[in-house]
Write a sequence for this structure.
C-alpha cells in the first residue's frame, strides 16, 4: 500500500490462528465463521520503518442455499470495514503518534475488507462453494445396498 505520493509505504502480513463458528439461523442455514489472525505491519515514512503488531477478527457470514439439482451452494457475505475487529499496537512512540494522526488501524481494516471481498468472490473458488449431493447420495445408496 503506497500513500502520500510514495513518501509513505505500508506492508504487512499475518497468520491465521483459528476460526470460531457460530450458528446464526436454521432457515436458511447460516453461520458466522470468524477468522482469527495475528498481523505485523510496517509503515515506512521517508524510508523510516514504524512497526505495529496486532490481532484481528474477520467475521464471514456463510449461508447455505439448496438448488433444484440436489446441490448446496454456500454464499459468503461481503465484509465491511466496520465488521472487522482490530487490536493494533504500535511498537514505539513514533508509531503511536503515526497511529493517532494517520488512523493506521482504520486504513488497515479498510484494506483487509477489500482483500477479503476480492478473494471470496474469486471465480476459481466456485467449486469450493458448491456441494454436489447427488453423487454422495448415490455412493451411500450403493454402499448400503451392497452390504445387505
Amino acid at each position: 500500500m503506497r500513500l502520500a505520493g510514495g513518501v509513505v509505504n505500508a506492508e504487512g502480513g499475518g497468520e491465521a490462528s483459528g476460526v470460531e463458528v457460530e450458528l446464526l439461523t436454521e432457515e436458511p442455514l447460516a453461520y458466522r465463521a470468524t477468522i482469527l489472525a495475528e498481523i505485523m505491519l510496517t509503515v515506512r515514512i521517508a524510508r523510516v520503518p514504524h512497526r505495529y503488531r496486532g490481532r484481528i477478527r474477520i467475521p464471514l457470514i456463510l449461508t447455505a442455499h439448496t438448488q433444484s439439482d440436489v446441490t448446496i451452494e454456500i454464499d459468503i457475505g461481503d465484509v465491511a470495514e466496520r465488521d472487522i475487529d482490530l487490536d493494533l499496537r504500535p511498537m514505539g512512540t513514533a508509531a503511536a503518534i503515526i497511529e493517532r494522526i494517520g488512523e493506521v488501524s482504520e486504513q488497515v481494516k479498510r484494506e483487509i475488507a477489500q482483500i477479503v471481498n476480492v478473494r471470496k468472490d474469486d471465480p476459481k473458488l466456485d467449486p469450493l462453494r458448491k456441494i454436489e449431493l447427488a453423487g454422495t447420495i448415490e455412493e451411500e445408496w450403493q454402499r448400503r445396498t451392497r452390504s445387505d
The first strand starts at residue 2 and ends at 3. Helices lie at 93-102, 104-120, 133-147. Residues 104-120 form the longest helix (17 residues). Residues 2-147 form one domain.
